[in-house]
Amino acid sequence: MGQRRGWGSGPTVATSCRAPLLTPRLEPTAGHPALPPFLVGLFSSLDWNQRPWSSVGWELTGFLEKVKMCLVSISWQVRNIRKVLREIDKPFGLYPNFLSPVSGNWMQHHVSVGGLGDSFYEYLIKSWLMSAKTDMEAKDMYYEALEAIETHLVNVSPGGLTYIAEWRGGILDHKMGHLACFSGGMIALGAEDAKEEKRAHYRELAAQITKTCHESYARSDTKLGPEAFWFNSGREAVATQTSESYYILRPEVVESYMYLWRQTHDPIYREWGWEVVMALEKYCRTEAGFSGIQDVYSKVPNHDNKQQTFFLAETLKYLYLLFSEDDMLSLEDWVFNTEAHPLPVNHSDSSGRGGG
Predict the structure, then answer these.
(1) What S-S linkages are listed for this chain (predicted)?
(2) Residue positions in the annotated binding site for Ca(2+)?
(3) Which residues are documented as binding site?
(4) Summary mean pLDDT of the chain
(5) H/E element, 54
(6) pLDDT at 52 (0 to 100)
C-alpha cells in the first residue's frame, strides 16, 4: 500500500545478510527504551536529539521481512519493539501515531489507521498468518487493537456509510484517507480467526468499509478516489478542499477489492475493480506510462507527470490478482507485505511454539 508504511520495498537477501553490519546502528543506546531510531546514520552515529520522533507504523514495518529472511540477528529486536508497544499505556486502547524513541512515551495523541499507523495493525495480523498461526502475541494484539478502533473510531454517516475516523486527543476528525482504505481488506483477512461470534460481524464491517472507499471513487467525475474524503456538512465520501482532491495511482482500494473477492467471490468486487481499470486507462494513461492526476473531480485531467513505484508494485499487482484464480499466490501460502511483496507462510512453524 503505496507510501504509507515507510520504505518502498523490503530488504533483499543480499542486503539482509549484512545484518551484523546494520544491527549496531539500530540498537538503542544505554538508558533509552527498546525503540530504534527513525533515522539511521550508516556512516556516523546520530545523536538521539536528532531523532525527535518515530511512528508506531514504522516501528513494526519490516517485521515480516526480517523474520522471513536472514535477519535473525535483529528480528529479536523487532519482537522487543512489539513488547514495548503492547505494555505501554494507550489512550482507550488506541495506538497514537507518534512516539519518542528517547523517552518511549507518546508524543501526540493523534490516532489514524491511515498514514504512519496503518502498517502496525496490518503487520500484527500478517505476522500471525505468516507464522502459520502460531504467533499468539501478534494475534492477541491485533484483535485488541481492532476492538478499540471499532469502539472509538468507526462511525456510520447519516447516509449509511461506514468509515474509520481519525482521533486527535479525544476529538474525531470525520475523514478517511485513501491510505486507510486498505483496512477493509485487512479486516476481511483477519475475520476467519476472530472469535466465532465475531467472524460474521468482521466480514460485514470489512465489506462496509470497502463499500465506503468505493463510494469515494464513484462520487468523483473521473471514478478515481481523492487522497482524503470527509463526512461533514451534508457531504459524504468526497474531498472538501483541492489539496486533498488528487489521485497518485494509489493501491489501497483495489487491494481491499482483491481480499474481499478472495474471501467472498462476490462479483461486485471485480466489477468495481474493472471500473478502476477503465478510469486509469481514460484519465491516467500517457504516452510514456501512467500519471497521477491533480483533481479527481475534473474530467479534463491535469497530470502530475509522475508514475509512482507502487503503481507497478501494488496497484497493478492487486488488480491482476483480483482477476486471477485463487491459486495464483494463494492466501493460504503467501502473505503480502505492506508493499505487496509476497512472502511464504512458514508452515513449518505450525508444529512449533507460538511467538511472543
Answers:
(1) 181-213
(2) 338
(3) 338
(4) 84
(5) strand 54-55
(6) 54
Question: Regarding predicted confidence, which is higher, 281 or 348?
Answer: 281
341 contact partners, CB below 8 Å, separation of at least 6: 9, 10, 65, 313
Cβ(284)–Cβ(292) below 8 Å = yes
Catalytic hit among 65, 122, 227, 255: 227
Inter-axis angle of helices 136-152 and 72-87, to 10 degrees?
40
Please provide the distance, in angstroms rounded to a whole number, between the alpha carbons at the two ends of the chain.
26
Cell representation of residue 239: 474531498
Alpha-carbon distance values, 287 to 224, 274, 307, 311, 314 (Å)? 20, 22, 12, 16, 21
Residue 127 lies in a domain: yes
pLDDT (tens digit per residue) in 284-308: 999 999 999 999 999 999 999 999 9
pLDDT band at 116 (very low <50, low <70, confident <90, very high): confident
Please confirm, yes or no, whether 332 is among the known catalytic residues. Answer: no
CATH of the domain at 140: 1.50.10.10
44 pLDDT more than 80: no
Domain that holds residue 251: 112-344
| Within-domain flag for 3 | no
Predicted confidence at residue 72, as pLDDT, reads 47
Cα–Cα distance for residue pair 126/155, rounded to 1 Å: 25
Q: Establish if 52 belongs to a structural domain.
A: no
Q: Which amino acid is at 268?
A: I
Q: Which three cell numbers mark 326?
A: 485463487
Q: What is the CA radius of gyration of the chain?
A: 20
In terms of Cα–Cα distance, which of 219, 113, 125, 122 is closest to 175?
Answer: 113
The number of distinct structural domains making up the chain is 1
